[in-house]
Amino acid sequence: MVTQTWLYDVILYIYALSLLFYFSDFVGPNRSAKRMGTGLLSFVWVLQTAYLIYSLVTHGKLSAFSMFETLFILSWLLVTVSLIVNRFFRIELFVFLVNVFGFATFALNVFSRPGLAPTLAHWNINDELLFIHITLAISGYAAFVVSAIFSGMYLFLHRKLKEKQWSQQMLRLPSLENTDRYAFVSVVIGAPLLLLTLSLGIVWIALEGDFMLFFDPKVLNSWFVLLAYIFYLFQRLVMKAAGNRLALWNLAAFVITLLNFLLANQYSNFHQWY
């Protein structure tokens, strides 16, 4: 049975998509990405504003607001501030990080609300949070797989060109420049998705109340994965590293991702895949 939580789910997914566009604009100025991110975040703001107005009309006075709605206002204020900063200043990283916090705050507010029914009748409310967490994680890992494949193609092409070994297969592959760019774009998609996944994981642990899970092998290794890809971006954007070095590090980061996925699950207290 579909209940009111579907609206909160839609807001979370739109929120996450807007942050992908903002992060893309941060790593490489992109006017189209910034417009899309601003448009989606503005839509989130409109939905949140509509809910606040509805709550105000329903309760009649601010003193009747619950803790949920009070913290909802905090999330709304963070979106509002970020939109103002985005309009008058070029501080994309500030806008992105503020909204990562706002995203987690909004999720915590929604899924900690007493009496809130999940979208599917056979779920509990934490199952719905876990579903969003998993879909973002899978999307991020898919982006990392694509990036690793392009990095492997880059190293193959680079070696063939360096050794002047021409073949018919090489003509069917993208150029070195495009292969490197496709790998980079995939990381730009995967890294913020992983960060949002981790933020929802923190919310889930907070709701469970078992704070020792913060030291779970899967959680700790996921932070190492994120740091590995952040270092890849740092090498490309700040250090201007050569393409073959970037490709090697990207593949190393993917190996860390695989180890995290395959090995950490065996010792995790709550990430059991098999």
Would you kindly provide a written description of the structure presented here, covering whatever features stand out?
With 274 residues, this protein is mainly α. The chain folds into two domains: 5-123; 134-267. It is built from nine helices and no strands. α2 (31-59) packs antiparallel against α3. The longest helix has 38 residues, at 125-162. The radius of gyration is 21 Å and the shape is globular. The two termini are 30 Å apart. Residues 67-267 form the Cytochrome c assembly protein domain.
Please name the defining characteristics of this protein.
single chain, 274 residues, mainly alpha, 2 domains, 77% helix, 0% strand, globular
List the helices and strands and how they pair.
Layout: H1 5-27, H2 31-59, H3 67-88, H4 92-111, H5 125-162, H6 176-208, H7 217-237, H8 243-262, H9 264-267
Helix pairs in contact: 1-2, 1-4, 1-6, 2-3, 3-4, 4-6, 5-6, 5-8, 6-7, 7-8
Distance between the termini: 30 Å
Q: Structural class from helices and strands?
A: mainly alpha
Tally the beta strands. 0
Would you identify the regions where 5 or more consecutive residues have pLDDT less than 50? none
Query: What do the pLDDT scores average to?
Result: 81
**Could you give the order of the helices and strands?**
HHHHHHHHH
- Give the number of domains: 2
Helix count? 9
Protein name: Cytochrome c biogenesis protein CcsA
Pfam families: Cytochrom_C_asm (PF01578)
Keywords: Membrane, Transmembrane, Transmembrane helix
